[in-house]
Write a structure and sequence with these properties.
mainly alpha, about 75% helix
Length: about 230
């Protein structure tokens, strides 16, 4: 499946991993000091809250996880299928991600947990969108799977087995994007506090516009059937 992905998808995957890295580090540095994109840790915190009967924490983590899932639901509703086609509604999905991130900025500025929920919804939407167009090959909101793949490839190499070079490059691509986003997000948060999220929100809008321009150029030579967003 990776061999069928066009080059613009690879560039988009790095950009979206960068955005997720920025958003997550802002959550970790913010007033709650909690991850926004990592459902594994948040599920563990939910389990701890359930065990201690901390109902306010149970509600918070349930809403945080539910917001991420809601974003994935929106992606599934908007994009509809797993076929990668220009004309599918990736541009609209990206604009929704951008809007949600813009909305989260003033909410977080007031130290409202709703800012975390809107940001989680945005990342859930973009992660599901990437999973849809890549056939679940790419995840941009977390890198556990990518590090796992790197370990597998190293084990294969030690045994003299063939290594999927394109998958290896994809792992480095997503990991580097998420890492660079975290570094940039840290500097941005130190300088601008929650307004740091204006950068990933704006970048998402730029990616959406770039996709739209790419699609328009392709439409001039290869008319696309299907929906037009």
């Amino acid at each position: 499946m990776i061999s069928k992905l066009p080059r613009w998808v690879w560039a988009g995957a790095w950009a979206l991993a960068f955005i997720a890295g920025m958003v997550n580090v802002v959550g970790l540095l913010g007033f709650k000091h909690e991850a926004i994109t990592h459902l594994t840790g948040n599920t563990s915190l939910l389990a701890g809250a359930l065990a201690t009967l901390n109902l306010s924490a149970v509600l918070h983590f349930a809403l945080l996880i539910g917001s991420f899932v809601a974003g994935a639901v929106i992606s599934g509703f908007v994009i509809q299928d797993t076929a990668l086609r220009l004309g599918r509604r990736y541009g609209a999905a990206l604009l929704l991600v951008s809007l949600l991130l813009f909305v989260s900025v003033p909410l977080l500025g007031y130290e409202s947990a709703y800012g975390m929920y809107t940001a989680a919804c945005a990342i859930g939407l973009q992660n599901a969108m990437v999973s849809t167009y890549s056939g679940t090959v790419v995840r941009t909101s977390h890198v556990s799977g990518m590090f796992t793949d790197l370990g597998i490839f190293l084990g294969h190499a030690l045994r003299g087995l063939p290594v999927d070079a394109r998958r290896l490059r994809l792992c480095f691509l997503v990991i580097s994007g998420f890492l660079c986003g975290g570094v940039a997000g840290t500097f941005a948060f130190q300088a601008f506090a929650y307004s740091a999220l204006l950068f990933p929100a704006s970048l998402t809008a730029v990616v959406s516009i770039a996709y739209g321009l790419y699609r328009i150029r392709k439409d001039r030579t290869e008319p696309v059937r299907g929906d037009a967003v």
